[in-house]
Amino acid sequence: MRDSRETLTTNAFVTGYPIKHSRSPVIHGYWLKTMGIAGSYRAHAVEPENFAEFMRLLRNGESGYIGGNVTIPHKESAYRFSDCKTEIAEELGAANTLWLEDGKIHATNTDGEGFLANLDDQAAGWDNTARAGKAAVVLGAGGAARAVIQALRNRGFSEIRVVNRTLVRAEEMRHRFGERVTAHPMEALQEVMRDAGLFVNTTSLGMDGEPAPAIDFGRLVHGAVVTDIVYVPLITPILAQAQTQGRRVVDGLGMLLHQAVPGFEKWFGKRPVVDATLRKLVIDDMETHG
Ligand code: NAP
In what order do the strands lie in the sheet with 196-201? Predict the structure, then answer.
């Protein structure tokens, strides 16, 4: 039998279904090793019909985990089956980070924090446009877009223009996040760029051999930043267009790295740092394992 104190304090997981493409074990494994922490972080595939049982075992300490990350398709179930939720998770209705405390499962969502930290890190001053009262444009209205829109609203953008193929999903963002969010159909994409200070792609447009729409970033304000949360490839077709047009671009890999920081700190007690070595390690892993 394993020592229950050890298992409750040092083992964490990432769960999803499937889970084998997750880069999270590489990220947390790097931090555990370089920070000299005797812990583990494992990928744990859980089929949707078994997720409730996974949460039950986590809650009563039988799984041996102190907490972990949750990814597709369990983010909403993780939120639902948790006992205590942060305000951020409450508003999103989805959780990506869980931890045990006093026999209860706590849940939060760190995607928005990772998104902001990546921009702060790679494009210092990117949010000056928010302070100057400029709008942000978000392409897409899926699960990840929710976290991005919430983060931009909380950072102070006066208007967040959400453009989506399915308009009703963009409208749902307005209902969820309030009247600073406006909803637009794809045909309005060029128009809504006018005077915006930030453009974020959260869709898979242009990936998997699909053609990327031609986007003219000329209407954005001077100094505006263009970012994509998709990070395979690092320079997506949308970022490539923005680069060609002379815009400052930020790739999405840093969001993945930074969203991992708060969870690691919760489980293992020390705040890790996102550095160039980690970034290279994850890029190498993507090149090797696809
Ligand atoms: P999702 O919930 O399935 O949403 C997908 C979004 O893309 C929807 O807005 C969808 O529009 C749009 N879309 C898909 N195909 C399209 C097409 N051909 N034309 C126009 N719009 C299209 O997915 P998600 O969870 O938000 O994830 C989106 C991407 O973000 C994924 O590639 C994921 O890997 C990435 N991501 C990155 C990070 C990071 O840390 N960097 C974190 C989370 C997610 P409809 O509503 O019209 O279907």
Answer: 181-185, 160-164, 135-139, 196-201, 225-228, 248-250
